[in-house]
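To make this tangible, this section ends with a sequence with its structure tokens:
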Amino acid sequence: MVSALTYTEKDSKSKERGQVSSTQVRHALAAGDVKYVTELLGRPHRVISRVITSKGGRISLQTSSLLNLPPGNGVYKACSLIIGDEHPISCKVVVETWNLIIETEEVEQVRFCKSQEFLLLGIEFG
């Protein structure tokens, strides 16, 4: 993982006033500092996608299919997978340049309805 960003006094004062710069969030994501992103946003960062390829307990997404920015390349443990309106499923996420791979041991809970044309999948980094 890339080293964490420095949390400056200016950042602290901006955050206290409820002001968070999207640039700060993008830089923290690029550095893979999801803990700092969570602090900035006041909630876990969630990546959204609608394109799914599943095999066993492993889901593979092309990063080009994501509807928002993933964190920098690396392995992220203690994440949550959210499929539609279902309860979160514990998972590990591997972010690569072109792919995002989600691994979970809760295989029986990872079911996709083939008849649905549009199903949102969320990944919370925490």
